[in-house]
């Protein structure tokens, strides 16, 4: 059964990666391509600029995908797979690994693009590599939220989704209030201190949150029912 | 080797309401079972629990001694082809028929791709159509294709004939019998169209208000059930002391349906008409209003 799950989710992951890559390219060319061409950078300069920006757009698409995909996976794919005799454990594992695969795929591709552009060498390369961790961490955190929402949705339906969105709104409000209370300079100082660690900690935080939310998903869905 | 799917004391409670109560059931390999019951009797719930798609509240379900719940090895032996829904939790079910069949082919270990294609052709299914755009009959055809092409040892179909026109239903019964005779698979078919399907049921399982009313060889069941009709007083004398499940009165005439215990017989010598009722009439007698 694991082989079949890998075959199924592998296909879904490749499809998702392809969509993210394609959309990122379209958005990149649409929003930035014109500026480079108009700026008189020439082909080489424009390509260099596009290569610099592409990983950011990949992250944007990744964040967009992560925020929407998990809900659909838990509410549609999970009951579908269980109805075809996949155990709940395997089905949830598949969903989680699919999301991880897409994140790692996008992060890997972003790193590869910057490597091709020669942006990962030298002193500045360290900072760029740090940004890779930042992008990965961001997608992991957004993906974790999506999985949390998807888990609530699969267990409690629309009520669960509303609850999840309400929780996110409250957390966002509290964070925003905290930042406003701390003041701009303090926040930037803190950010710069953390950036010295090249954001690897941020990626690890994302992984930790993802692991926590995954455990929650397994716990809540261990007796999930398939309904018509 | 004879395979057995065994349910012991299974009950299901939803929001404090018991929808299935202490059902003991043993399904043997190589039979076609008919599962009949009124709306809300618990048929779909029972099928869901037998195939571990829903957890039991109490009791256990095993296949050849192995627990079904979250057990990939046991789950490989079953297929529950449930009714398709045109609406998914996220809105319209936009999955295409061919995508649905592809998922089935990926996860059902004994999937017969050629059979699936042949059946889709025989039923005239447009596999490129989205499930949300299918008619009720077409959705039934998809569930039939999945059930038959799954080649599972124990295959459960939940109202497969719903929405099918009479020609399609005849086709379904014919294909089901052919598959049964070819492979000896076990089929459990829940249906409301009892009269048509009763010819193919080797055993019938009747659920009533969440309880197992009976599970018996169809022929033997019909042979011990009687419809006695005639003059009211004669009928009363003929069935005196027997449990009457259903009665109809028209003027001075009366008709009653009985289900005798094994070994029990009707007393002869009364001026009444005695017939064996059809399975449908027996079901209505057992699960409709009870006679006083």
Task: Describe the structure in your own words.
- The complex is a heterodimer of chains A (228) and B (292).
- With 228 residues, chain A is mostly helical.
- Chain A has one domain (2-221).
- Chain A has 6 helices and no strands.
- Chain A is globular and about 60 Å long.
- Chain B is an alpha/beta fold and 292 residues long.
- A 6-stranded mixed beta sheet of chain B has the order 6-9-10-3-11-12, sandwiched between helices. Chain B has a 4-stranded antiparallel beta sheet with strand order 2-1-4-5, with helices on one face. A 4-stranded antiparallel beta sheet of chain B has the order 14-15-13-16.
- In chain B, α4 packs antiparallel against α5.
- The N and C termini of chain B lie far apart (47 Å).
- Classes of the chains: A mainly alpha (228), B alpha/beta (292).
- The interface between A and B is medium-sized, with 26 and 26 residues.
Report a brief summary of the structure:
The complex is a heterodimer of chains A (228) and B (292). Chain A contains six helices and no strands. By secondary structure, chain A is mostly helical.
Give the overall silhouette of chain B: globular
Number of helices of chain A: 6
The number of strands of chain B is: 16
Strand content of chain A: under 5%
Mean pLDDT score of chain A: 84
Which value, in Å, is the CA radius of gyration of chain B? 21 Å
The CATH homologous superfamily of the largest domain in chain B is named P-loop containing nucleotide triphosphate hydrolases
**Overall number of structural domains of chain B:** 2
List low-pLDDT spans of chain A: none
Count of individual beta strands of chain A: 0
Measured between the Cα atoms of the first and last residue of chain B, the distance is: 47 Å
Instruction: Report, as a whole number of angstroms, the end-to-end distance of chain A.
Output: 24 Å
Q: Spans of chain B of 5+ residues with little confidence (pLDDT < 50)?
A: none
Order of helices and strands of chain B: EEEHEEHEEEHHHEHEHEEHEHEEEH
Largest interface: A-B, 26 and 26 residues
Largest sheet of chain B: 6 strands, mixed
């Amino acid at each position: 059964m694991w082989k079949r799950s890998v075959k199924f989710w592998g296909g879904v992951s490749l499809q998702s990666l392809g969509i993210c890559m394609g959309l990122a390219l379209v958005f990149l060319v649409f929003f930035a391509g014109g500026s480079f061409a108009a700026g008189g950078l020439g082909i080489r300069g424009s390509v260099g600029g596009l290569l610099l920006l592409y990983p950011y757009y990949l992250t944007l698409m990744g964040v967009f995908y992560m925020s929407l995909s998990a809900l659909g996976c838990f509410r549609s794919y999970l009951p579908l797979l269980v109805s075809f005799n996949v155990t709940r454990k395997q089905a949830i594992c598949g969903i989680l690994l699919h999301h991880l695969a897409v994140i790692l795929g996008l992060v890997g591709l972003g790193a590869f693009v910057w490597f091709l552009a020669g942006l990962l060498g030298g002193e500045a390369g360290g900072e760029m590599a740090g940004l890779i961790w930042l992008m990965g961490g961001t997608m992991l955190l957004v993906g974790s939220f999506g999985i949390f929402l998807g888990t609530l949705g699969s267990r409690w339906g629309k009520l669960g989704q509303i609850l999840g969105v309400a929780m996110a709104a409250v957390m966002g409000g509290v964070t925003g209030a905290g930042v406003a209370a701390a003041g701009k300079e303090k926040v930037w100082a803190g950010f710069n201190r953390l950036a010295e660690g090249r954001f690897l900690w941020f990626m690890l935080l994302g992984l930790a949150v993802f692991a926590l939310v995954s455990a929650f998903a397994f716990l809540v869905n261990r007796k999930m029912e398939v309904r018509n | 080797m004879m395979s057995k799917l065994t349910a012991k004391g299974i009950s299901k409670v939803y929001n404090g309401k018991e929808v299935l109560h202490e059902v003991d059931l043993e399904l043997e390999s190589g039979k076609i079972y008919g599962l009949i019951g009124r709306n809300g009797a618990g048929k779909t719930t029972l099928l869901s629990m037998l195939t571990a798609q829903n957890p039991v509240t109490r009791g256990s379900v095993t296949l050849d001694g192995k627990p079904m719940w979250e057990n990939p090895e046991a789950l490989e032996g079953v297929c529950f082809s449930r009714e398709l829904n045109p609406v998914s939790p996220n809105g319209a079910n936009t999955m295409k028929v061919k995508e649905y069949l592809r998922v089935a082919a990926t996860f059902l270990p004994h999937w017969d791709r050629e059979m699936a294609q042949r059946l889709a052709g025989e039923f005239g299914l447009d596999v490129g159509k989205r499930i949300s755009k299918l008619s009720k009959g077409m959705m039934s055809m998809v569930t039939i294709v999945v059930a038959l092409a799954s080649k599972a040892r124990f295959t459960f179909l939940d109202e497969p004939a719903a929405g099918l026109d009479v020609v399609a239903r005849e086709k379904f019964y014919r294909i089901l019998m052919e598959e049964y005779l070819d492979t000896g698979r076990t089929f459990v078919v829940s249906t409301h169209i009892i009269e048509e399907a009763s010819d193919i049921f080797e055993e019938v399982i009747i659920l009533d208000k969440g309880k197992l009313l009976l599970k018996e060889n169809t022929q033997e069941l019909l042979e011990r059930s009687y419809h006695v009709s005639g003059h009211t007083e004669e009928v009363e004398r003929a069935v005196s002391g027997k449990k009457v499940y259903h009665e109809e009165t028209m003027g001075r005439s009366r008709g009653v349906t009985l289900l005798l215990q094994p070994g029990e017989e009707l007393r002869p010598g009364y001026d009444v008409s005695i017939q064996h009722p059809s399975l449908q009439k027996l079901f209505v007698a057992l699960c409709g209003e009870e006679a006083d």
